[in-house]
Design brief:
This protein is mainly β. The longest helix is centred in the first third of the chain and has 10 residues.
Length: 289
């Protein structure tokens, strides 16, 4: 049973959801900032998937039928997110929630424009939050909502209408959404610095203690990791002398604005011999591929 006032919640979310076209396909987006103030100067900011934004010169159609050409403000291809800006003010912006507080079993709703149907709604429950085989180590919100082409970039929201994710793709019978905290990071402009590695979480036992390790699958040529002599097969186990608790710990360290040099602990061949290397990072470009 849907909670009281669910219809009003859904309607507000529809008005914050836009249609994005301009290429061979189409998708959805979420108004996250809007106003006629000194910061936005009568502009609105929309979040969508990167694969939707780069399909062509993006155009944005609002719930009231108005259309605008959009400018790509930022791209994060790694998390498949993009920010667009349009010359419109006083639009109904959706509120972003804390995706870390989301739990399996919670009711969620998805709004989008599947197969050309504007503002279509689907509802279900969160099945899991975490990584998936074949999709790397990053977290996905996995929900029992029906998504179709055109839903990409639209909101996944909780029962109060607070956006907790950006719908991105389907895996099996579940819809996958990028957590809203990733959107908040992109909006803040706090992009991670570049290390130049592809990582995969692995469990480790070091001196009889279970620990998380990040296995280096690939090292990019001429990257900070390469210059620090890190190699594929090495396993990162700590930062600054502190054990890794999660992949988020590692990403937070890369985002620390005061840290241009990271002291990384890793193991190579002998898992009981922990080594330390100092890596000088470089800034990643949020609009680069």
């Amino acid at each position: 049973m849907f909670p009281l006032g669910f219809g009003e919640v859904a309607e507000r979310l529809r008005r914050s959801t836009v249609h994005i076209g301009g290429g061979r396909g189409h998708g959805s987006g979420i108004i996250v900032k809007s106003g006629a103030n000194s910061a936005l100067k009568s502009q609105a900011v929309i979040v969508t998937n990167a694969h939707v934004a780069v399909a062509g010169q993006p155009s944005v159609t609002l719930w009231d039928g108005r259309s605008f050409q959009a400018r790509i403000e930022a791209l994060d291809r790694r998390r498949d997110l993009a920010l667009l800006r349009i010359p419109a003010s006083d639009l109904p912006a959706a509120a972003l929630g804390d995706s870390n507080r989301l739990r399996p079993g919670e009711l969620v709703i998805a709004i989008g424009n599947p197969l050309g149907f504007m503002g279509a709604l689907t509802a279900g429950v969160v099945h899991a939050i975490g990584s998936l085989p074949g999709l790397g180590p990053r977290k996905w919100i996995q929900a029992g909502v029906r998504l179709a082409p055109g839903n990409s970039g639209g909101p996944l929201a909780d029962a109060s209408g607070t956006v907790v994710g950006v719908n991105t793709m389907v895996a099996g019978r579940l819809g996958l959404a990028v957590p809203s905290n990733e959107v908040a990071r992109l909006l803040s402009g706090n992009q991670p610095q570049l290390l130049g590695v592809t990582l995969q979480p692995v469990p480790l036992s070091i001196e009889g203690r279970e620990r998380l390790g990040l296995h280096i699958v690939e090292v990019l040529p001429d990257s900070p990791a390469s210059r620090a002599s890190l190699l594929p097969g090495d396993i990162l186990v700590g930062i600054g002398g502190h054990p890794l608790g999660s992949l988020d710990d590692f990403e937070d360290a890369l985002r620390a604005p005061s840290e241009s040099v990271l002291r990384l602990q890793f193991v190579r061949a002998d898992v009981n011999k922990i080594r330390t290397v100092a890596v000088r990072l470089s800034m990643s470009n949020p609009v680069a591929a």
